[in-house]
Amino acid sequence: MQFHHKTPFARGYTPLVTRSGATADMLMDFGVVTLLPGETWERSSQTDEQCLLLAWGNAKITWSVNGAAPEHQDISRPDLFDYSPWCLSVPRESKISITAGQDGAEWYYTATDNPKRFTAKLFTPEECRSEFRGEGTMRETSTRIVRTCFDDTNRGESNLVIGEVIGVPGKWSSYPPHHHPQPEIYHYRFKPEQGFGLTAIGDTPYLIRDKDTILIREGQVHPQVTAPGYAMWYLWVIRHIDGAHYGPATNTPIFVDEHQWVMGDERNIWNPVKT
To answer: Least buried of 19, 71, 74, 242, by fewest C-beta within 10 Å?
Structure first.
């Protein structure tokens, strides 16, 4: 499923995915918070864990768990292509508040049910695990940057996994093609903004534009490719499911058998020769 959003996001919260109707099986609420300088947005929940990731701008973020004294931090991120993110994760019975600084700010918000109690944490850009994945394989045709804010290795109590991918111009990501039983949300930005990419969710192809959102359901294969000349950033959020957390413990992701060979000896990949 694909959602287009061609115009700038309105001030305040724009819901993109909800736990009702046609997107109920995603098990997550997901949206964008856009603030002008000095504007404040607040959200609290007694039942949901919540996550806020800063896309760009500067802001003061404040959080409080179960009525405890609030904590706060002034943070900034010039842009989402060249800088790693700040990401706040809080358990249920938490209140969060963000006030935009002089540049304004844009955030991505995710919420899902989680009865567990755990400590709130603001993940810094330095704590975000960043890797240049695909390097040295497939003739460098699937080289991309993968940033993981948190997963089971550093946030085992969470029902979420969240991170970013920056697709290098003209190259593939989410490759070799893979799938997993857990629902996943992709949300895209391009540099320059008129850029585009392509994906196939299962057997259905999609042309991807700036601000698009793609929903990936159980078992759907989802490779991506970026148009030459353009960088493709996308946020990915995965919801663990009961009895099957996403990650090595459940052998996910699962690569499609017929395409796994591309990770082997590059000499097996056809190389064009000018004649």
So the answer is: 242
